[in-house]
Amino acid sequence: MSDEIRPDPSDIVARLSRRPLALGERLSEIARDARTRDPQGSALVDRFVARLEAARAGSDAPQIGEMLPSFILPDHDGKLRSSQDLLAAGPLVVVFHRGHWCPYCRMTIATLAEAQHRIGRSRVVAISAETQRFTRRIRAETGAQFLFLSDMNADYASAIGLAITVDPALIERYERAGKRIPDFQGSKGWILPIPAVFVIDRDGVIHASHIDPDYRRRMEVEELMRAAAALGN
């Protein structure tokens, strides 16, 4: 079997967005496509995820009933945003994602964008380690109208137990596929956040969450919406 990675079909997120599927089903389709195109790369991901799960990656992150630590981060236009000011307007849904280059993240953001008017435009906040150039890109590509914040060097994700260092074998794979993560983040390290969702009330207390070192699994949007609705406006 050839070790070459066939080109990632750039329209897979758009194609799946046109189908009435739940987020989990869409992500499973992307995973199946990845296994077909690049079985060796998918096997590397499986082994890396297994190591993260064995190490209980993400288990030190804030839990339900705890406070989500405050943050001050620049948004997609470079304006500093504080969690304190955002919470003054109501409860928040804080979504950590890996970046525009990740089809699972684009699919997640696109699915959230489909539901954004039912969640509340000011309620969702997406956080990644990418620079504004790329947060603006994913925002435009998905039609999202909510805030995208840049967590430079994944400092905030690291502080709350959500950062991981990419496996060297995967670094090589990503580079061959043209996904040089440090270039997207304006940094030198290969550090990514564990995808996570926190639904927090106006006091910053977590009422629902989803933390999974396997980035191919995410919180279903309907579950997120129920948790947000329970907090009111």
From TrEMBL:
CDD domains in UniProt: PRX_like2
Keyword tRNA-binding: no
Domain of life: Bacteria
Coiled coil: none
Protein name per the record: Peroxiredoxin-like family protein
InterPro entries (UniProt xref): AhpC/TSA, Thioredoxin-like_sf, Thioredoxin_domain, Tpx_Peroxidase_subfamily
Keyword terms of this UniProt record: Redox-active center
Gene3D superfamilies: Glutaredoxin (3.40.30.10)
Organism, scientific name: Novosphingobium aquiterrae
Plastid in keyword set: no
Thioredoxin domain boundaries: 62-233
